[in-house]
Each structure stands twice: as structure tokens, then as C-alpha cells.
Amino acid sequence: MSEDYVPPKVWTWDKSNGGAFASVNRPIAGPTHDKELPVGEHPFQLYSLGTPNGQKATIMLEELLEAGVREAEYDAWIIRIMDGDQFSSGFVDINPNSKIPALVDRSGPEPFRVFESGAILMHLAEKFGMFLPTSNPARAECLSWLFWQIGSAPFMGGGFGHFYNYAPVKIEYAIDRYAMETKRLYDVANRRLAESRFLGGDEYTIADIAAYTWMGNIYRGEAYGEASTFLSMHEYEHVGRWVAEIDQRPGVLRGRLVNSGKGLAERHSAADFDTLPADKLKGIVKGF
């Protein structure tokens, strides 16, 4: 492996060349093994892991419960992606893309799947009439920022995070490319939050939930080693104000702990949080 690599005329898969994710990354879809997913007793069955994308779903569900929406009760089952759980036949049935999070809505007569974190946020917001404005221009603004985040995540995670923290060799061009784009995205958010309490406006919405899980983890120094120092997170004061405010929301604190090795591997009832040390519910939780 070298910076002097010259691409061949036709690419072929070299399993040994994948770095930290060599054991699970592959160029094909579909299941690798047969295994049914467990099913709990609640209306929503979530299959996930406590990464930023996974936290979107658990924060949303906990925010709904915090707001008194009892119908949003859920079971959260852990999908250990480094063990290849996402390639089981049961998981592929509910997400053919083999990525977390994936949700099964069993609240009606016929269960159905919802996959991709943005789709899960929109589905739950529309189902319960919360955290998504119902009329324009507020709805359009919220959805614009939601999809801004969805489009931004690959630059922060698979781009910057991968080459800065996970890649088996440090490639200056790749790190510079994605550090530049990540900082640009923080500047976009910082400028917006200089004029608005939340991304969509005065009200907290699914746009904030989506962006917070990525931007908050990096801002607080809880992702990719020394990334917050490397990217000079102190420059983004309005992002910092926004992160600090959302950090204090009880639903957010609980949601960040679900499907996490440093919190609850699984969540099947609100009482599960009572098993954690008190400091966990004060927001002391490290990301990935």
C-alpha cells in the first residue's frame, strides 16, 4: 500500500487491503448467513448501534417518550457491525443496504420496515406530529437542513473520519481534502446558528437531531481521536452553543446511551436506564 499507487485498468477486491474494516467491507450486497432478528413486545423494533447514525433513531424515540408519547415505546437490539451482524438474512430483509439503523414499525396491523436514518426520523416525526413543521416555509427549511446533513455525513465519517483515524496509512491529500470539507460544513452550520437558535429556526426539529449526532461528537472530542483539536473546533462558537444546549436534553442524553458499549447494549424499557451509574445520565459518554 503506497501513495504511489497506480490504479489498474480493472479494479479487483483485495480483502487484505481494507484496514480496520477489512473484515466487514465488501463490494457486494446480500446476506452472508442465515439468522432471524429478535422481536420484542413494543410497537417499534430498532436494530442499530450507537454510532452517530444510530443515535439519530434512539434520540428521536427517547425525545418522543420524553414528550409523553407513550406509543413510541421501543425495543433497541444491538447490531455489532464489526462482527458482521448487518449481513444476517434477517437484517438484510429490513435493510438491503446492510447499514444501521433499521426500524420495523409494528404499531399497525401489518409490520413494515423503515431504513436509512433520515427516513426513520421523517417517519416518526410525521407519525406522531412532532419535531417536523407541518407547513411551509418552516417545513421546507427543516427538511433542507435535514438533507444537508444526510449529504454531509459521508464527508465527515467515511471521508475525514476514515482517512484521519482508520486508514492503514496516512495520506496527506486525502486528509487535507476531507478536513477542508468538514471544516467548511462546520462553517455552514456556524453561520446559520449565528442567526438562528436551531438549524430549522426557533424550534428544535429532526434537522437538529440528525446534525447533532455527527457534529456534536466531533465538537466534544468524542470521535476520531484528536479530531476536535486537529479541526480547531473552538473556531465554531455558535455550533458550540447549539451543541451545549442539545446536550442537556434528557431524551438526547438517554438516546446517546442506547446500543452503546459504554451505555446500554440493548434497551427494552425505560427502567433499563436505572441500571446505569448516575454519571452516565449526566452526558458522560464517549463516542466512537
Description:
With 288 residues, this protein is of the alpha+beta class. The chain has a domain at 138-256: Glutathione S-transferase Yfyf (Class Pi), Chain A, domain 2, CATH 1.20.1050. The protein contains nine helices and four strands. It has a four-stranded mixed sheet with strand order 2-1-3-4, with helices on one face. The longest helix is centred in the middle third of the chain and has 29 residues, at 138-166. The radius of gyration is 19 Å and the shape is globular. Mean pLDDT is 94; it is low at 284-288.
The strand order across the widest sheet is 2-1-3-4
- Overall mean pLDDT: 94
> H/E element string?
EHEHEEHHHHHHH
Low-confidence stretches: 284-288
The name CATH uses for the topology of the domain at 138-256 is Glutathione S-transferase Yfyf (Class Pi), Chain A, domain 2
Instruction: State Rg.
Output: 19 Å
CATH classification class of the domain at 138-256: Mainly Alpha
CATH architecture of the domain at 138-256: Up-down Bundle
Largest sheet geometry:
4 strands, mixed
In helices, the fraction of residues equals 40-55%
Summarize the structure.
By secondary structure, this protein is of the alpha+beta class. It has helices at residues 52-66, 89-94, 117-128, 138-166, 172-195, 206-219, 227-230, 237-247, 250-257; strands at 44-48, 74-78, 102-105, 112-115.
